[in-house]
């Protein structure tokens, strides 16, 4: 299989398992993920896996920004934590 630069596996934080799950929800390319955004992609993942965790949300945002999630700005990490909390409480 030939990979191109739009392949999900070229993004940081996206391993085979997460890549397969993204494809399952209709996000097939890096462009698809950027268009959806990390929060929308995470909500779609939660539909197929209610146990999707904060680390996956962080990984998705890092992939959107094309950086390792550990290097996300602290403000963004806090925003994602608040979003995850709301999702977990069923308020989104």
Q: What can you tell me about this protein's structure?
A:
- The chain is built from four helices and no strands.
- With 92 residues, it is mostly helical.
- Helix 2 packs antiparallel against helix 3 (54-65).
- The radius of gyration is 13 Å and the shape is globular.
- The model has no long low-confidence stretch (mean pLDDT 94).
Secondary-structure map:
Blueprint (H helix, E strand, L loop, with lengths): L15 H9 L5 H19 L5 H12 L8 H15 L4
Helix pairs in contact: 2-3
CATH topology: DNA polymerase, domain 1
**Class by alpha and beta content:** mainly alpha
Order of helices and strands: HHHH
Shape: globular
On the 0-100 scale, what is the average pLDDT?
94
What's the story with the biggest beta sheet? none
Class in CATH? Mainly Alpha
Quickly count the domains.
Answer: 1
Please identify which CATH superfamily we are dealing with: 5' to 3' exonuclease, C-terminal subdomain
Distance between the termini: 38 Å
The value of Rg in angstroms is 13 Å
CATH architecture: Orthogonal Bundle
Secondary structure: number of strands: 0
Helical percent range?
55-70%
Sheet-strand content, in percent, reads under 5%
Low-confidence stretches: none
* Secondary structure tally, helices: 4
Précis, in short:
This protein is mainly alpha-helical. It contains 4 helices and no strands.
């Amino acid at each position: 299989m030939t990979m191109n630069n739009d392949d999900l596996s070229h993004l940081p934080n996206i391993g085979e398992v997460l890549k397969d799950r993204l494809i399952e929800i209709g996000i097939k390319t890096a462009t698809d993920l950027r268009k959806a955004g990390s929060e929308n992609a995470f909500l779609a993942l939660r539909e197929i896996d209610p146990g999707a965790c904060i680390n996956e949300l962080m990984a998705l945002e890092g992939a959107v920004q094309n950086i390792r999630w550990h290097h996300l700005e602290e403000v963004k990490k806090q925003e994602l934590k608040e979003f995850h909390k709301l999702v977990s409480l069923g308020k989104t």
